[in-house]
Write a structure and sequence with these properties.
This protein has 354 residues and is an alpha/beta fold. It has two domains: 190 residues, Rossmann fold (3-Layer(aba) Sandwich); 126 residues, Rossmann fold (3-Layer(aba) Sandwich), CATH 3.40.50.460. It is built from eleven helices and eleven strands. The strands form two sheets. The chain has a seven-stranded mixed beta sheet, with helices on both faces. It has a four-stranded parallel beta sheet with strand order 7-8-6-9, with helices on both faces. Strand 4, helix 4 and strand 5 form a beta-alpha-beta unit. Helix 2 crosses helix 3. The longest helix has 27 residues. The radius of gyration is 22 Å and the shape is elongated.
Length: 354
């Protein structure tokens, strides 16, 4: 089994509240086991460029409560090339990095599995507000992002009530509707629009007409950005034109990414970070750390990536070839479970709305 004397930790892709808590946990867990830690700044770009500094206990003090990532993040097209990959491997040799904990989304995991295949053991932590990693029930930053949306929507509702308006609110989530559908329930939205479920604009318009007829003054419609660039603004114009209710459009955009992580994200990130270090030192790699049923578990990264493709309808020829019929059936069941959950949440939002 490989002896780990020094590991690296990086954050990549979109930032998410709780990433700093994860870096802190990785650093402190490794140092407690006598393993040095190198902070890799700017994600895979920093790994290629050698933007790397040692991390001690004091370097990760007082960061658990901060949003964003103090290691910074970047998207690195060069890392997708073999030349870029070899530069990263050379950097690992230069800084004597024996393994890496990579915090981010599916793009981060693809980089981690490519490094593992070339001799640099890696373990991934799911850091993304979108909650679009099918292998885990929740991702680092997801809960905080939803609470940020709730705070913003509650404020918008105040002014909607004052002026008898409707507000169409677009929230982040990339191609996933997890943030929109859950915050739709929590905010008491009139309706939500998510890419996973066909949207009936006419039904929403009729609901708003009925609500206005019985004396309701404010209406909130929450839309996932996965519905398309112009969907929200067009829907706002359609609602106003067909109901006579003054309708405003608000795109919350990157404000949803920011802010101090809440308790759930701090605890989950801390548990995942410690768990990742333990697995790496045990000699395990090419894993993504997940939370399933409240338990922290490890899943093969390749399995997680193919599971994602299956859920998102992006499977390619040959993707399932390495897996047994039992594993493929497990993937299908997990996809069905997530689809059923999204559908159930969507129905709840509609049943409880007016």
């Amino acid at each position: 089994m490989k002896t780990f004397r020094r590991i690296g930790v990086l954050t990549s892709g979109g930032d998410a509240p709780g990433m700093n808590a994860a870096v802190r946990a990785v650093t402190r867990a490794a140092l407690a086991k006598g393993v040095e830690v190198m902070g890799i700044y700017r994600g895979y770009s920093g790994l290629i460029d050698g933007d790397i500094k040692p991390l001690g206990l004091r370097d990760v003090s007082n960061i658990i409560n901060h949003g964003g990532t103090f290691l910074y993040s970047d998207r690195c097209p060069e890392f997708k090339t073999e030349e870029g990959m070899q530069k990263a491997i050379a950097t690992c040799a230069e800084f004597q990095i024996d393994g890496i904990v990579a915090i981010g989304g599916d793009g981060t995991f693809r980089g981690a599995t490519d490094l593992t295949a070339r001799g640099i053991p890696c373990i991934g932590l799911p850091g993304t507000i979108d909650n679009d990693i099918t292998s885990t029930d929740a991702t680092i930053g997801f809960d905080t992002a939803m609470n940020t949306v709730i705070e913003m929507v509650d404020r918008l509702r105040d002014t909607c009530e004052s002026h008898a308006r409707c507000n169409v609110v677009e929230v982040m989530g990339r191609g996933a509707g997890d943030i929109a559908v859950r915050t739709g329930i929590a905010a008491g939205a009139t309706s939500v629009a998510i890419p996973e479920i066909p949207f009936d604009a006419n039904a929403v318009i009729e609901k708003i007409k009925h609500g206005r007829a019985v004396g309701k003054r404010n209406f909130i419609v929450i839309v996932s950005e996965g519905m398309g660039a112009d969907f929200s603004q067009n829907l706002a114009e359609q609602i106003e034109a067909q109901t006579g209710v003054e309708t405003k459009f608000a795109r919350l955009a990157h404000v949803v990414r920011g802010g101090n992580p809440n308790l759930r994200d701090r605890v989950m990130a801390s548990r995942m970070g410690e768990f990742a270090v333990d697995r790496l030192i045990e000699g395990k790699s090419n894993l993504v750390i997940c939370e399933n049923g409240g338990e922290i578990v490890a899943t093969d990264i390749n399995f997680a990536l193919i599971l994602d493709r299956m859920y998102k309808g992006k499977l390619k020829d040959g993707d399932l070839a390495p897996y047994t019929p039992a594993q493929i059936e497990e993937m299908k069941l997990r996809c069905e479970k997530k689809r059923a959950l999204i559908a159930s949440l969507y129905e709840t939002c509609n049943r409880l709305s007016l």
